[in-house]
Design brief:
This protein is mainly beta and 162 residues long. Helix content is 12%, strand content 44%. Keywords: Plasmid.
Length: 162
């Protein structure tokens, strides 16, 4: 019987079924997904397009902004943009073409506000903000987490709205 429940869970999760995802904020994994969810707003051009940190070279493949949204229901593919908390927000996402666990060790803090930072995943840099969209987003590589008196490490990533 345990085997049946285990296999059922694997099959349901593999089929886009996620029982604990309702109301969870979402970020698209690609521009295509953002467009499919009907939340895509615009692209941003990165400068520089590649950078090196601790011997690892990262290339920014694409960067975009989408409306803030949440998952609705139990299917991963369901999207909700409503008049609630996320109605006036955006998600900024930069896709890195060489996915790596070492991306998680990078600390990028907003150039004009040390309390805002870029989150990292295996293949993306991401953050949220409030509308309207800025024309330029800039983040500095620092030696620690945001909100602290960090040392600037000589790299600024700038993203310009297209």
């Amino acid at each position: 019987m345990r085997l049946f429940y285990a296999l059922s869970t694997v099959v349901l999760v593999g089929c886009d079924f996620h029982p604990f995802i309702d109301g969870v904020p979402g970020y698209s994994r690609s521009v295509e997904e953002s467009k499919t969810r009907n939340v895509f707003l615009t692209t941003y051009r990165p400068s520089p397009t590649s950078f090196t940190v601790k011997g690892n070279v990262f290339h920014i493949q694409t960067a975009w902004v989408e409306r803030g949204w949440t998952h609705t229901g139990w299917l991963y593919s369901n999207t909700k943009v409503d008049a609630g908390f996320y109605a006036d927000s955006y998600n900024f996402i930069a896709e890195v073409s060489e996915p790596s666990d070492s991306l998680a060790d990078i600390h990028l803090q907003k150039s004009d506000n040390k309390n805002i930072h870029l989150g990292t995943s295996y293949s993306q840099l991401f953050t949220s903000g409030s509308l309207p969209l800025p024309d330029t987003l800039s983040y500095d590589l620092v030696d620690g987490m945001s909100g602290h008196d960090n040392t600037y490490l000589g790299l600024r990533l700038t993203f310009i709205k297209q």
